[in-house]
Amino acid sequence: MSDSDDDVPTLSAHTLAALQEFYKETSTGPAHSTTPSDQFAVGAVEEDWRMSQFWYSDETATQLAEEVIREAGEGGRIACVSAPSVYQKLKQGVVDGSDRVSAVVLEYDRRFAAYGDDFIFYDYNEPLSFPANVAPQSFDIVLADPPYLSEECLSKVAKTIKHLSKGKVLLCTGAIMEKLATELLDVKKCSFLPKHNRNLSNEFRCFVNYPSRLLSC
């Protein structure tokens, strides 16, 4: 192969301009933005199907955020277990009352460590493995979305939920998990239908163990 520059292909002026425009748009996209609303936008961290990540639609994330704010109460603490879309919506500052609660996100995906002290590394295979500063029954409500539709996964996540929650549980999972969810967490299926940005082959539902607006909405 020649070391000469004579054989190096060159881009046309039009192609070069288009490429520069692409890089400009990429560098100013949500993933690179420093504004708080963009930093916490649902989808600011891209889904990774290898980790069974499927983000909620913006409307669903908003409705679930409103629900946990309402149930946590003034000064309440909210744990989002494998549910980063709801955590992000809570932190955007666009949902009424979000400034009166605090929230953390428990995630296996370390990309969410960008959220600082709000991020707690979580592996459902070690359901009770938490830092010392995460006390038992220290959250007013726990919202959980187990990454896999399996008995093993839900059973382990249920242990996490019981460890963290003072009582209230909002579970989002496949409809096929209803019987096990009821046995493990004494929850009831809601009329509310959660939606994702991508259409999933499995029907998804929400379950709660307290009187909720989601039961009849």
TrEMBL record:
It is found in: Cytoplasm. InterPro entries: DNA_methylase_N6_adenine_CS, Efm5/EEF1AKMT1, Mlase_EEF1AKMT1/ZCCHC4, SAM-dependent_MTases_sf. One of its GO terms (molecular function) is protein-lysine N-methyltransferase activity. It comes from the Eukaryota. One of its GO terms (biological process) is methylation. Its EC number is 2.1.1.-. Belongs to the class I-like SAM-binding methyltransferase superfamily. EFM5 family. This is EEF1A lysine methyltransferase 1. The lineage of its organism: Eukaryota, Metazoa, Chordata, Craniata, Vertebrata. The gene is EEF1AKMT1.
